[in-house]
Amino acid sequence: MPNTALLDQLMTALRCLPGVGAKSAQRMAYHLLERDREGGRVLSRVLVEAMERIGHCSQCRTLSEQELCQLCANPRRDQSQLCIVENPADQAIIEQAADYQGGYFVLGGHLSPLDGIGPKEIGLDLLQERFSSGGVKEVILATNPTVEGEATAQYIHDMAQQFGIRTTRIAQGVPMGGELEYVDGATLAHAIRGRSEF
Amino acid sequence: MSRINFIPAYVLHRRDYQNSSLLVELFTPNEGRLPAIAKGAKSGRSSKAILLQPFLPLRVSLSGRGEIKSLLEAEQNGQPFKLTGDRLYCGFYLNELIVRLIERGDPFPSLFVHYCQNLAQLASDEPIGQILRQFELLLLTELGYGLLLDHTADSGEPIREELLYHYLIEVGPVVSSSDSSGMKIHGSTLIGLHHGKSLSKQSANEAKQLMRFVLSHYLGDKPLKSRELFAGPTGG
User: Which stretches are zinc fingers (C4-type) (chain A) (predicted)?
Assistant: First the structure.
């Protein structure tokens, strides 16, 4: 059966999803049309609504439907403590796992000149404004321990120094329940260097 | 090439690929710049993601006939270069220059050796400007765009320290020119650059402007992103 123009469009559109190539897009399109029209309708409705209504929190840049996200609007969160993360997924995992009561700032990436990502692209101008308006006492750098993540942390540290704000970096070391024997050398070296008082 | 075993390499850049793999841009002496996929590098059991980072000397095994190779193995080949602050941004700058100017697959063995040395210099406390200028000059020479620094392009006379020259792109320094596209530069700066000497503050600044002027010609309209890092936040 030759594909109709609309079917072709649908398959092309599905390929914008990560990890979806021509073959998977075709399978998805046929599945929705032949087996699950209702699911397809729900998907299209929610997708349109989400694309229209979800924006970025004006204060911490995380994904939010409101001008201020729930965390930023919560008066019980201590906004003088600011945890800097690379993306909303990192924020979510810290929220789940750690007993953290401060605020966040979500960069949406890390400094990576080769991807064309500089300070502006990850909202550091906004962060600088936040620093200059006062109220932030501690910045917790929770960017990934990669070279780019470290560069980003360093850049934000330099920025915070200008305003006399204390900066801390999340600890790096041996995972809970792990065995030293199986920890890679770089992490172990970090763990030894960053040892803490018992 | 079907398989090459344990060649020296540096990661210039990496990005996520599918769920748990990485797509890395490698710099090697004889294969030049090449992309490779490290399958499952980010899955829990693999330590490849820790190794596949910029500024860490590696030895890698690759296979595949297409443009994009498969990265089979990677092992550390020396201590990582500890770059911080401006020196880290310089490292990004070197990587960006290589990715932007070198075609994939062309061999650059001597540039590779120089790159290793430059990283070591960046990790020490040698002046940044001098390291970058030497790398830029060598990169241009290797690409066949080497700069004329010791004599003039028109009369062929040796450069004299006290004179002011016009530097024309793809030509070189001339004593005077009706062409206004060139850049004014002192003889002392040209000679200093030629001998790789440490330059006075004014000369160093002039040398930086000259390299920017020449490089922008080859880089085209898209400016280098890593320069933005130097600009702020402290304005250094």
Answer: 57-72
